[in-house]
Amino acid sequence: MRSLMNFFGGLRIRSLNPLIAVVLLFAVVVGRVGQADAQTSRYTLDDVMDKLIEVDKRLTVVETEVKRNRELIETVNTNLTKQIEMVNTNLGDRISATNTTMRWLFGLLVALFGSILVFVFNIARSMRPAESSKAFRKEGKAITERERALEEKLQAEDRRAPQETRILEALEQKVDALAERQKELEGKLKLAEVI
């Protein structure tokens, strides 16, 4: 009888249903057999009913606890879902902010590098006219020295015979050409200084 009670006690019973009716019928039969043999019978029908009611109460308590646990699990799942969404949102915002910052930094680096290149180019450009002006000045001095040498030669030729007049005229033409060349060089020098 005890093994039978344990078997039916393991089943989920909330209220009177066909399974309980079968158990009660079986208990009645066992009770009658127990009345015939009182030495072998331990439980009566009232004991069986009490046990069934106790089992039903325990099952009700267990179901209530299960419902509470389910509600707690649902609440925890909801909170976890909200926290995960918040974390994902925060991570997305941080990633977008980091990307924006990196873009700004890259733009600043490009602008700085470009400004450095422009500065170096301007320095190099400002140094070139000075070098060219020096070259023009040297060339102008050389031309002046040549003119002086030619003038001295012309004066020496003037002192010589009048037959050398043609040579002097040719030399004067060369001097004129050199003078024009000097003017051109001086113009280029002024232009270089202006630049």
Description:
Helix content is 88%, strand content 0%. The chain has 195 residues and is mainly α. The longest helix has 115 residues, at 45-159.
In total, the number of strands is 0
- Level of helix content? over 70%
What is the typical, i.e. mean, pLDDT?
73
Q: Cα distance, first to last residue?
A: 121 Å
Low-confidence stretches at least 5 residues in length (pLDDT < 50)?
1-16
Helix-strand topology string: HHHH
Shape, principal axes of CA atoms: rod-shaped
Largest sheet: none
Summarize the structure.
Helix content is about 90%, strand content about 0%. With about 200 residues, the protein is an all-alpha fold. The longest helix is centred in the middle third of the chain and has 115 residues, at about 45-160.
What are its keywords?
195 residues, 2 domains, 4 helices
